[in-house]
Amino acid sequence: MEELRTEVLIVGAGPVGLAMALLLEKLGIGCMIVERREGLHDAPQAHVISSRSLEICCALGIDDATIRSAGPDPADTLNVRWVDRLVGRDLGVFSLASDPDAVARMFAQTPTPVCNLSQDRFEHILFEHLSPDTSVRFHHKWIGFEKTDDGYRSQLALGDGDDSVAIRSAFIVGADGAGSRVRASIGAAMEGPSRIQSYVTVHFEADLRDSLGDRSGILFWVVDADYAGVFIAHDIDSNWIFMKEVDPNEPLGAIDEEKFARLLRGAIGTDVDLTIHSMNAWVMTAQLSDAYQQEGVFLVGDAAHRFPPTGGIGMNTGFGDAYNLAWKIAMVRRGFNRDLLLSYQPERRPVAAANSEQSLHNARKMSEVGQALDVDGDGLTSMADLEAVLADPARQAEVQAAIDRQAAHFDMSGLDLGVCYQSNAIVSDGPPPVSDRPTLEYVPSTTPGARLPHAWLERGGERVSTLDLVRYDRFLVLSFGAIPDLEQAVEDLVAAGFPVEFIHVGGATGLQPVAEAFAELFSVDEVLLVRPDGHIGARLSARKAKQQLPETLRRLIPLEQEPD
Prior knowledge:
alpha+beta; about 30% helix; 27 strands; about 575 residues; globular; 7-stranded mixed sheet
């Protein structure tokens, strides 16, 4: 049997597995990806890339513009429509740009506002940024592992045959999706409902630009009971998904392709040239793994959590998993105590739990629109109901009000940017401030555990974000007032083997705030110790920072053995 070696074995070449590899590359940690499929996905799945995921991409060196240019025209993605047919009449519209205050908040809180890009295209961008040194072995099925003195020995089956290969690694990261073999291998079980609803997804190609006219959008909810489903416009000119709910009590066996092709054409509402590429059945769940790790084996992405798609945060939560985990593995490989790895599950599982709950809430809340459209109260939205709504301005207003109440479905900035960790890798000093609408609205703060707030700075005539100050391979000591000898304290820590750097904003330095809002976020009376993942590890008193810093950093990342 062929036997290979790598530092970290990543099982799964979806977007989260690819992101994990890119992060490890950036840290100088060798890795290998194995994937049972013959290649990357060739059909769209997820399409929302959140602000935080885009921030992570920027930290990886993948320019925000590169991702946006690969996606649809932003003007095509601003509206969500409830319709009688795709090429038909609107019953109501939710505009993502309808609230100027919300748009202004988004642009003030992140340098990378949310964008839409099909997962398959996103995967190819991630794949193209991998180093040639990172081996990606497609058509290799991960079978299981055995523990060794220095880590793990995994067995893989090649293709569909009997040939096999062994891979020795110090760590294993399971990014192998909902049916994760890695999860099963550590004896972890999924908690939560395993079957909320069943769907058939039809991927088809059609140019519907002219047919839609000025009715562009990213989602089209067809509400007539005969053809009810949702169209996702990955690209109005070519790339579409139609998602149709099916009876949850019926087993998902062979798909009646003729039936669903007929339903697709009926839901479109006019005869158009189209090509159906695939049909797939799947089950909506809301589940979390009861364990995210077992010693040096970790779960990320769908291997650790599965959400309803309502809100589009499944892949983005997986991106956060990878960003949280990779730097910790690198620190341990550099000689820091393995207890740092124990912070992964306490930090990431509560995030997944909150995101799962909100996704499920979004799915259930959508019923309010159906109730408003159901004029005769029989529990079905028939074409007769829709004609009655369209003929009654008061009823139309009720439907639009129900649609407007779905705002959290389409804007979850609070969940995305407002994550605040608690673990042994954080020196907590209290809860962060929160909005009255915590899902929708993010409140920036310097509370330990929270993401470092974004603010624009100027350096040598160039505009940079506070987020750009954070380097993924080291901690950052960030000060905003003159503190004697603090820089020397940081240099002493570097000499002792700690990866940390000092940056001062303001004063006589070359790094200056460009807006008055900066002073509302950052105080000259505090010093922030920021982790490599951009979350604040500790908040120190400026007056005592020189004395507090060494002990605090040693608490967060203790060396296995301090130098003499």
